[in-house]
C-alpha cells in the first residue's frame, strides 16, 4: 500500500516483521506490540531503528519505557469511526513527547487525513482503493484553520498577532 505524508507519496523503508520471524540487522523493522512485550530488549537491541504496531485502543503509557528507542509507531484503528486514533496521537505528541514518525494504517477514510495531521500523524498507509492524488490534495485544501493544531496557529491568532497556545 502507498505511504503518503504531507508532501505526497514517500518511500517506505520500514520492514514489517510478522509473528516471530527473525529480525535482520541493518534494517529498520516494525514489530507488533505483543512481540516487544514478550521479548523486550531482544527486539530493541542494537542501533537499527525499530517501530511498533498498536491498535487504537492501546494504552500508550505502556510505550513510555521504550518510546525514545522507537522511530515509528503505526496505529491501526478498528474502523474509520474510531476516534481514539486522534486522542492517541495527541497523547503521544503532547504528553509523552514522541518525535518519530506516527503513521495510521488500515481503517480510516481520506477525509480524515487533514485532521489526522493536525493531531500529530505524519504518514498514512493508504488503501489501494484510495485515489492517491485526491488524498494528497486534501492536505493542501486549507491554508488556515480555526482551531489550533499541533504544528500550526489558528486564523484568529494570525490575524491578531498572538501566538497560539496548545495545551496538553
Please give a structural write-up:
The protein has 168 residues and is an alpha/beta fold. It has one domain (3-160): Alpha-Beta Barrel (TIM Barrel). The protein is built from six helices and eight strands. The chain has helices at 33-39, 41-44, 84-95, 113-119, 132-138, 155-160; strands at 3-5, 8-10, 15-16, 29-32, 50-55, 70-76, 101-105, 123-125. Strands 2-1-8-7-6-5-4-3 form an eight-stranded mixed beta sheet. The model has no long low-confidence stretch (mean pLDDT 81).
Short description:
With 168 residues, this protein is of the alpha/beta class. The chain has helices at residues 33-39, 41-44, 84-95, 113-119, 132-138, 155-160; strands at residues 3-5, 8-10, 15-16, 29-32, 50-55, 70-76, 101-105, 123-125.
